[in-house]
Write a structure and sequence with these properties.
With 303 residues, the chain is an alpha+beta fold. It is built from eleven helices and twelve strands.
Length: 303
């Protein structure tokens, strides 16, 4: 029987020698993996068989095919290797936090983006190291929502601090990490740096607002003959269509060297003293002065 088993094992000589050793040392136990010639892997266990009287009755051998389990372990390790390599090379922020928001993993992209070194980051509190002090409350108010897997918390935008104190806007996609028993052990997040994109979007939005104001006022000039109505409607267009907080039009009174408001709009304009009070013009001589010349360089509210 031993020879029949040995014929199936890759290293038959070592197997036979091991069996002989165990026969000579009958109190020894053996637990090994056997690699068969057909590619299977067998878990082998052997122990002495003794009775209650401590008499030796022989040896018990157990063999179990663990090929599928070993392949599953190899596949899992290969998957983890590829995943780790992907996160390390992708141009996205990648990190993992435990339940206390301590950093357990981060990729090279995050380190390059923020100026930190790996050993300075691992084990540190994410919120203390990367989040601005004024929003540290998110650790209590928002982080538990991610751990709970609430849908509204899984996708978010927030700023992080670099080592120099600069701010970067990150768009996050998060998921909950669980143990084999199903317990929540932390979170994994992928983040895209959208700082420059946000700046460009804000700039485009601003230019669109300005274009809307200019287009509206140009159309207004063609159809409105009354000057006062033109000024009032121009201010309204700047606020309603341009999205500006407030707008004011003033006329220059060169005799009194003032800018006199004639129209305004905006929800806060009534609380602004400049909406109804003339501005004194500095740096421009009166019209009758022979030395007058140039344009006014600044204005201040007349007291």
């Amino acid at each position: 029987m031993i020879q029949a088993a040995a014929d199936q094992v890759e290293n038959s000589e070592a197997f036979v020698a091991r069996v002989q050793y165990l026969n000579d040392h009958r109190d020894d136990k053996s637990h090994e993996e056997l690699h068969l010639k057909d590619g299977r892997i067998v878990d082998q266990y052997s122990a002495p068989a003794t009775g209650a009287d401590h008499k030796h009755y022989g040896r018990v051998w157990y063999f179990r095919d663990i090929t599928a389990r070993k392949q599953a372990v190899r596949d899992l390790r290969e998957s983890e290797r590829r995943f780790s390599e992907m996160l390390g090379n992708v141009k996205l922020v990648s990190l993992m936090l435990d339940r206390n928001a301590r950093i357990t993993y981060c990729n090279e992209y995050l380190l390059c983006l923020t100026g930190w070194r790996y050993e300075e980051v691992i084990g540190r509190d994410w919120f203390e190291l990367f989040i601005a002090p004024e929003i540290h409350h998110l650790k209590v108010s928002f982080f538990p929502k991610i751990l709970a897997g609430l849908p509204e918390a899984m996708h978010d935008e927030s700023e992080i601090l670099t080592r120099s104190g600069a701010r970067r806007l990150i768009r996050w996609n998060s998921s909950v990490l669980r143990s084999a028993a199903g317990d929540v052990i932390g979170i994994a997040s992928i983040g895209e740096d959208i700082t420059e994109r946000k700046v460009a979007q804000d700039r485009i939005a601003y230019l669109n607002r300005v274009y809307a104001v200019l287009s509206g006022i140009n159309a207004l000039i063609v159809r409105v003959p009354d000057r006062d109505e033109l000024f009032r409607e121009a201010c309204r267009i700047a606020v309603d269509e341009g999205g500006f907080r407030m707008a004011l039009i003033g006329l220059v009174d060169r005799t009194g060297m003032q800018i006199v408001p004639v129209a305004s709009a905006g929800k806060d304009v009534s609380s602004w003293p400049g909406s109804k009070t003339a501005f004194q013009i500095d740096g421009v001589a009166a019209p009758e002065s022979p030395t007058a010349g140039g344009q006014g360089k600044s204005a201040r509210r007349h007291q």
